[in-house]
Amino acid sequence: MSRTFEVAPGDAVHPGDPVIVDRYTTGARINHWITAASLVLLALSGLALFHPRLFFLTSLFGGGSTTRMIHPWIGVVLFFSFLGLFFRFWKLNLWKREDGTWMARLRDVLTAHDEKLPEVGKYNAGQKLVFWLMSVLIIVLIASGLVIWQEYFAQYTTVEQKRIAVLVHAIAAIVIICVWIVHVYAAIWVRGTISAMTRGKVTGGWAWRHHRRWLKELVTGKT
Amino acid sequence: MTNSWMDIGNADVVWIMGGNAAEAHPCGFKWVTEAKHNRGAKLMVVDPRFTRSAAVADHYSPLRAGTDVAFLSGVINYLLTNDKIQKEYVKHYTNASYIVRDDFDFNEGLFTGYNEGTRSYNRSSWEYVMEPDGFAKRDLTLSDPRCVYQLMKKHFSVYTPEVVERITGAPKDKFLKVAEWAASTATGDRSMTIMYALGWTQHSHGAQNIRCAAMIQLLCGNVGIPGGGINALRGHSNVQGITDIGTLTASLPGYLAMPTDSEPTLDSHLVKRAFKPLQPDQTSYWQNYRKFYVSFLKSLYGPKATPENEFGYQWMPKLDIAYDVLRMFDVMHQGKTTGLFCQGFNPLMSVSHKAKTIAALSKLKFLVSMDPIETDTVRFWENHGEYNNVDPTKIQTEVFMLPVTSFVEEDGSFTNSSRLIQWRWQAADPYFESKKDIEILSDLFLRVRTLYEKEGGKGVEPLMAIDWNYKDPRHPSSDELAKELNGKALVDLKDAEGKVVRAAGQQLATFGEMRDDGSTDGVQWIYTGFYGPNGNFAQRRDNSDPSGLGVYASWGFSWPANRRIQYNRASADPEGKPWSEAKKYMFWNGQRWTGPDVPDYVPTIPPERAVGPFIMNQEGVSRLFTRGFLADGPFPVHYEPFESPVANPLYPKIKGNPAARVFKNDMEVFGDAKDFPIVATTYRLVEHFHYWTKSVHANAVIQPEFFVEMSEELAREKSIRPGQMVRVWSNRGEVKGKAVVTKRLKPLKIDGKTVHSVGLPLNFGFIGEAKKAAPVNTLTPFVGDANAQTPEFKAFLVNVEPVPGPVA
Amino acid sequence: MFPPIANPKAEAITPKFGEQDLIRRSASSITPAAKRQTEVAKLIDVSKCIGCKACQVACLEWNNLIEEVGINVGVYENPHDLTPNTWTLMRYTEWENPESGNLEWLIRKDGCMHCEDPGCLKACPAPGAIVQYSNGIVDFVKDNCIGCGYCVKGCPFNIPRISKVDHKAYKCTLCSDRVAVGQGPACQKACPTQAIVFGTKDEMKQWADKRIKDLKSRGYQNAGLYDPPGVGGTHVMYVLQHADKPQLYAGLPDNPAISPIVELWKGLTKYAGLTAIGAFAAIGFLHHIVSGANRVSDEDERNAKRLAGGSTK
Fold first, then answer.
1. Shared-domain flag, residues C175 and C300
2. What does the radius of gyration of chain B's CA atoms come to, in whole angstroms?
3. Interface size, chain A vs chain C, as Cβ–Cβ contacts under 8 Å
4. Both C196 and C248 in a single domain?
5. B208, B630 Cβ separation under 8 angstroms
6. Do C72 and B706 touch (CB under 8 A)?
């Protein structure tokens, strides 16, 4: 295996005080935020149509009909946007041996005993899980979403298929929202993370603490 | 109809054959469902197709199109051989006991007196034996071998269930069930109604189909009683009115006859219609013909009609021959017609053999269409591709379209199948520039008359003689015309004691008040009373029905004399007692005839006088043997349609009805079974009304496109897939339509041979909102019934093949 | 004859029911009307139906619907299915009865059944887009409809159709506008054979009993009323000659009920889903409170610096 496997193009270390590490390129960040915005809008509009108590959320989108109309289109945006992220990130999200160890020590993860965890590359097992769950769920959502997209695809499926699709869509959506909560919470809880997606940079200490192997490979790769 | 729509609700057995009431008369069919629901009546349907009527029937039997006489004769044979007849009724109310002349005979399918050259009969032997006193000889024991009853037994004995099956294809058990159910009503306490329509009339032997039905009903004692009768279902809401008013070329209003060339004087016309009774004491109501005729002439010519000038009889046109629709178009085809007025008539769609119709119309100088909608006929000259493939440059006929109001846009009356005259009020304003028919025709009449006045010309005298005395001559009102139909007293009418019974100017209350001396007028005697001295009874809307028998005597006016069931004297036995409590209707109460209806009888004649209940007939009884009144025989005979898949199994040498008229060149274009092995029949669809509603969006939505119905077996044989376009062709032309492959049509075994049928709905043409189609009459043969000349639309031969291409 | 409903008077009539008589309203919780109106029902007697389609035309005309002129595809049904403009459709089935050997042409008028427990209403996410009056009529309220098509999935009879033009759901209203002023539905009015009758549900059941008795006397041993309990009964009922085989009638469901998938979707999933989302959020919140932020220490920074080393600023 190539040693540079754990780093992505554009990742770089800038020695200094503190050390600054480039984690995401501008393109990746734009891509991420489009995806993020889509997902949030989808969650809001989807929840509006999912539970009567949340129907008021349709007013964010200009009413029920526009919500119904716009939701699947946002879904299409999300799908293609995420497809971009997928091609950017999939390699570094492949499962490694140490990911198992990391997962086994989830208690240490949650209690912030990072020192007891194996050194991980650019992504830890949790992030990888989020990535793969998102990938799978988005495929499930887009597929089931197309089946229930009344305006264009109603004639291609039976009512029974639509029923299954709408249920699958709902469950997948709930799961993806939960995954999204984990993702967002992790970003908040692990301080210093958000700057990775806002400015594209993290501090060396953050990289040392959470993605040491990535940092090491960046450094060694650089030397 | 002998009975009324509502009366169908009184039936115990409903037999629909030669019609498809659920399809073509859905609103009237409600009374069938009432009879079923309220009385547990049984419905049986006999039809080449399993129809919408069959869908709600208790029993269905198929038969091959055009073989109704054989089927019905089989039923007659069943009734006679099993003695399932209502004996007393038959003996006293039919001519079963009458002795027929010795020289009358039936041999090899022909009656005595046939002339092959003229395709007609000398009917002189088809007559009763007359006693020296001038009355017909009878044998009330019905045992004389020459009595009608015995002759019938012999005549119909050939129609055994096996023969019926061989000819019609109706499985024996299905046929027998029909016969048994019919026979179950020959009891006096049960009744059967027979409902038919164009499925019986539109044959070269149409009148004989109906004769058979009449005979069955008479044998079962089902005429004149509630829930009985022979009920012709008229298609258009006012088609009964149209026939009543005398639009048939050989008849005048009220079924009076047009004068003919052989009747140069009024007396010569009337003497033929003296109708002396053939038994003592009989009413023979047509003896009053003269009164009705003179009253008609008085209406036509007003004060100009006087006893001295035979009430204007000389001004009447005299017919050389009858100009029925086939003749009319044949004459036109010969180039002998200058102009054609179509008033609510779409002959391109409704006359047989479209190619001949197109050729005929092309020879006209002008064609006028008075219609609320644009008809296919007014576009006959226009090329519509395969649907109407003509060359407009070769057609010089000038076409005028005069838009007329539709029925909702004017006041007037409808006469429905029940002979019920109902007034209707204008519900909408005339559309755009359309005018009422009355207005257009009056205007035309006055303009033509003015032209004649100025310039003179042949026939000017009759034209000037017409009495056109209306408030607004250019626009006589419906009310004025209705009054005129009814008739009025022209002078004070007095009875024998000199008492004035009807003052001058008063409307007549009944046709019994009509006189033959010119003191009354009235266009249409049968309607007299509908607009009598007490006003327009067609406007009555009292739906009370005290008897519960669906009489509704105060709703509208049912001609004649507001009678709902004709021949209703026959609902009681010779002593005047009801045949049964269950069928109690009109009866003798010791003083007079009474009951919920108007007696079809002089109300005060006691039963002892033995005046027959069939008062219109000279015999006073009904005729199982029709003497010389029909052109093709006094008894029905099974004749094949002119185009038939098999030779006549009984009389192989006879093609078609031997007495049916066939024009030159039309015999040649009959197809034979070798090239055209498939039987075709045409019919209407419930979703459409004739050729009108293909121009109505909603109707086009629910039945958008011409189709061809066929059995699964035929489709398989011809490799036709459901919904595929198929070509159907006869020896006269071709049409294309979508294949509707159905279990409702089945191949039949006819005389040992498998015969397929196809069904062709006739409502589609090339004008309107529905998908374009070639008129189905492209295929039909140009031959009509031997008596009525109604074209043979219901049975002819075609072939079928799939049109390559994607399905549906 | 079932006593016909008299024509209305010319003057304006106050509607007999309205907003105040709702017992269900989609995606809303309402207090059902205290007193239920008498339940109404339309009874379709298949054994009396002649398939004339007068009901179809009456429906088009009363509701001002313009349907397209289609084509013939080898059957009598036209249009070929229910559409946003065709709220009722005659469906024809040719069936050879193996017992009698007779052909039967079964003609069923398809359309909304007005279920007592309407699946469409259950599935509908838009408040007030589908309502059920206390007399049993289930009506779509166009102004509130968002065109999502959930009602299609909710319906056990496959009835609602979504318009391609205005993206609203359409189906038979049981002519709630006519019923409100004492009339029967337009289809009932147009039916020439009283195959369609309208009245209170009790009256209809009694009438159906008579019809079933009549059918049994004619040899239809399994004649019966179709008022499926799986949806709590319906306010459109059928008299069937073969009530033991509803499927014969162009696929009329044998035991219709709201699909368990829909029940799961609109039931457990709805509650469990929101709970799960809430739980995840709460757990995160609690976790943060309990364990505090995971901060990068100076030590980490130093280590990084050491690693990145070699090079200095």
1. no
2. 26
3. 182
4. yes
5. yes
6. yes
C284 touches chain A (CB under 8 A): yes
Cβ distance C153 to C123 under 8 Å? yes
By the CB < 8 Å criterion, does B707 face chain C? Answer: yes
Q: How many structural domains are present in chain C? A: 2
Pairs from B129-137 (Cβ < 8 Å, separation ≥ 24): B129/B99, B129/B100, B129/B101, B129/B102, B134/B276, B135/B277, B135/B278, B135/B279, B135/B280, B136/B98, B136/B99, B136/B278, B136/B279, B136/B619, B137/B98, B137/B99
* The total number of structural domains that make up chain B: 3
In the predicted structure, residue A4 carries a pLDDT above the cut 70 = no
The answer on C163 and C42 residing in a single domain is: yes
C-alpha to C-alpha distance for B519 and B487, rounded to whole angstroms: 11
The total number of residues shown for chain A amounts to 223
Closest to B54 (Cα-Cα) out of B785, B791, B779, B759: B759
Return the structure tokens found at B353. Answer: 């053999």
Q: Average pLDDT of chain B?
A: 96
Cβ <8 Å between C287 and A185: yes
pLDDT at A2: 42
Distance CA B638, CA B623 (A): 19
Quick one: pLDDT band at residue C310, thresholds 50, 70, 90?
Answer: low
C195, with CB counted inside 10 A (0-12, 13-18, 19+), is buried
Expressed as residue numbers, the domain containing C66 is: 19-258
Q: Do B698 and C193 touch (CB under 8 A)?
A: no
Query: What domain range is B344 assigned to?
Result: 325-411+426-445
Last residue of a domain, one of B235, B265, B299: B235
Say if CB B141 and CB B628 are below 8 A apart. Answer: no
Q: Are residues C236 and C274 in the same domain?
A: no
Residue range B102-138, pLDDT digits in tens: 999 999 999 999 999 999 999 999 999 999 999 999 9
**Contacts with C78 from chain B: Cβ below 8 Å:** 687, 701-704
Domain that holds residue A36: 3-222
Mean pLDDT (whole number) for B191-220? 98
Q: Does C277 sit within 8 Å of A112, measured CB to CB? A: no
Predicted confidence band of residue C207 (pLDDT cuts 50, 70, 90): very high
The predicted structure's pLDDT at residue B538? 98
- What pLDDT score does A24 carry? 95
Contact C181, C8 (CB under 8 A): yes
For the entire predicted model, the pTM comes to 0.94
Q: Does some domain include residue C7? A: no
Does residue B217 share a domain with residue B333?
no
Which of B134, B182, B192 lies closest to B618, judged by CA? B134
Q: What CATH number does residue A53 fall under?
A: 1.20.950.20
CA distance B641 to B671: 11
